[in-house]
Structures are given as C-alpha cells and as structure tokens.
Amino acid sequence: MLKLYIIAHLIFSVIQFLVGVLANGFIVVVNGTDLIRRRKMVPFDLLLCCLATFRIGLQMVMIFINLAVLSLIEFSPVPENITIFMYVHASEVWLATWLSVFYCAKIANIANPLFFWLKLRISKLVPWLICGTLTYSFLTSVFHRNHAWIISQISWLGFFSQNATTQIEDISALQFALLLIEFILPLFIFLISALLLIFSLGRHTQQMRSTEMGTRNPGMSVYISALLSILSFLILYLSQYMMAALGFSEIFKIKNSITLFCILLFGSYPSVHSVILILGNPKLKQNAKKFFLYSKCCQ
C-alpha cells in the first residue's frame, strides 16, 4: 500500500505540471499570436516567450523525474538524459537571469554611466543574449556531460539506497570548479540585478509616501506591485537554487517525505513564477481575463 506522502506528492506534482504547462503555454500562445498578427515581437515578449518555452520543457523533465522517484516508471541516469536536463535547466536559469537584468535596466533609476548605457541598449541586446544563452548552455552541457553524469549517479543511487556508494575520483578539481562557477554565475548576476531593482523601487516608493499626495498617488500601487513581484521572483529563484544544491549533495540519502517535498519545491518555481508573470503583465492579464470570460460563455 502506498504511503500517504507518496500519494500527496504524486497529486501535487501532477498539479504543478499542469499549472506550469498551461501558464507557460498561455504566454507562448499570446506572444506567438501577436507575432503572427503584427509580424514583429518586442524584445521583452521575445525573452518571455523563450523563457516560457524552456519552462514547459523543464516541467516535462520534472514530471518524468517525479514519476521515476516514486518508482512509477523506470529511469536510468545515462549521460544522454543528464545532458538534456542540463541544457533545459541551464537555459531556463540564464533566461530567467536575463529577465531580471531586463527588469532592472528598464525600471531602476541608478546614477551610473554603465547602468545608463545598459538602460539604453538592453532591448537591442536581448536577441544576442538569447542566442548566446542557447549556445553557451548547449556547449557546457556537452562539455560537462560525463562529469555531470557521475555527480547525478551519486545523488540518484543515494536517493534509492542508503548503502549505495559511487566513485567520484574521475572528476578533477578543475572540472568540479568549472561546474561550480557555471552553477553560481547566473545566481550572482541575478542577485545583483534583483537587489538593485528592489533598492531602487523601495527608495522610490518611500519618496512617494513622504510626499503629501503619496498615499493617494495612483502610481504608488504600481510600484508596490512591481516590488512584490520582484521579491517573489527572488524568493522563488533562490529556492530553486537551494533545492538544486541540496539535490546534488549527500544530505538526502534515502527517499522520504522531506526529500520529496524538496523535489516538489524545485519544480514549483517555473510554475508559480509564470503565473505571477501573467498577473503582473497587463497584456497577458487582459488576455487571461478574455479567455476565462470566453470559457464561461461557452459553458
């Protein structure tokens, strides 16, 4: 008989998968429709569309992993499977990082020549950042294919067997250092951009509150909404990194409720943040309302 926490994990992982695919699919469809109708796509929508596409792929990988963890399907951590996961995950992380940089460049007000240069050119840089991300993620995934496979074997075998042992001597210190740098670099860039944006929005909100009309200013709610959105983005992004770091460590040696919860938390980020993006984007939010109204009319 299946344990209660395993049944709960299965239900939540399916809900997580459906929410992620539907939310990200909605983003792709809305922006794709605009591209067909207008025959062009603004840089922000292009970045959002690419991010949503890779998040759909990540959700498919995560539901596959969840089913394998629950022993409902067979899964072997062969190099090919690990390479696909690394490519999808690395692309998603970098695109989310560039989204944070885009927000920071467009919204934040910082008196710095380099930041001013970035603010003027970020829109033109978006296609290059996307192409560079996809190329870089592919090359690093192929380059670290065998080494990532060894590390994943340690985590995977340790997850199912308390006495499982795997040799890690094949990974040199240099290779491990490169893997670590590539893992931390997008987090470092994201933290800088997110914290700068939070600081700028917080300072501007405080200035608006200090004025006589601050509390009645309609722009106040916009800045507070943006601040909350970025804070939620930061929390979800950091939680994904924490779960990824724990997953590749030897902290979780055997399948239990805590381990399953951490796997579920890792996969919740691309689902929950995409819903937040829809609610915080006027165009996506308006199309979502139209979709629900149309669904009610059809019923």
Automatic annotation (TrEMBL):
Pfam families attached to this UniProt entry: TAS2R
GO MF terms, alphabetically ordered: bitter taste receptor activity; G protein-coupled receptor activity
Signal sequence bounds: none
Gene Ontology cellular component terms for the protein in this record: membrane
Cellular localisation: Membrane
Keywords recorded for this protein, A-Z: G-protein coupled receptor, Glycoprotein, Membrane, Receptor, Sensory transduction, Taste, Transducer, Transmembrane, Transmembrane helix
Keyword Glycosyltransferase: no
InterPro entries per the UniProt record, alphabetical: TAS2R (IPR007960)
Regions crossing the membrane: 6-30, 42-73, 93-118, 125-143, 176-199, 220-238, 258-280
Membrane-related topology note: Multi-pass membrane protein
Recorded family membership: Belongs to the G-protein coupled receptor T2R family.
Protein known as: Taste receptor type 2
Organism: Myotis myotis (Greater mouse-eared bat)
